[in-house]
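agent> Task received from the user: take the single chain below, predict its 3D structure, and emit structure tokens. No templates, no multimer pairing.
agent> Plan: (1) validate residues, (2) run structure prediction, (3) serialize to tokens, (4) report one or two observations.
agent> Step 1 OK, no nonstandard residues flagged.
tool_call: predict_structure(input=
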Amino acid sequence: MACIVIAACTPAREASRGPPLDIAALAALDAWESRGRVALNAEGRGVQASFLWRQDGAAAQLELSGPWGVGARRVRIEGPDILLWSNGAWVPMCASGTAAANELKLLCAAAPLNSLPFWLRGLPDPLNPHTETPSPENAAREFRQDGWRIEVNALTRARQLTVPRRVYISGPCATLRIVITDWDLPGAS
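)
tool_result: status=success, residues=189
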């Protein structure tokens, strides 16, 4: 199994001490976008990227830009299907023989792409059991799911909701640090 380490994009800081995460409101969102930065260190190689995550119901689109691969990469997630935009068409990203960059193929093997729409919002994936764990002093929320530890360790406000700003995800052979710099929540009040 491939291992991934996504390194810190910014130095760690204490979680904000404002209102708690708006769990019910975030779970009710059907469409939303988040933007930010991610850094990846996989098997001794390091890459960084800006990301844009667009969620519309059960379908998600992830755009990665910057040094991660050549130019921008677009990934679409629809249920179990993970597709890459390549040569003018959507092709299976995780299938052997696909022209995906090595770093993207490592994501298929080690990253929980289907759970990320929930984890980015600081929520457990409702399709799988989870365990809430007492949050460390510097975390706003922490839970464990499918062998992964998800820690929301910084919050911000967007459209009157308290949302994650920094999410730390660690698993058996992967660690992800995601810094969300902007949220677009069209359905939120």
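agent> Step 4: summary for the user.
Residues 4-184 form a domain with the outer membrane lipoprotein receptor (LolB), chain A fold (CATH 2.50.20.10).
agent> Done.
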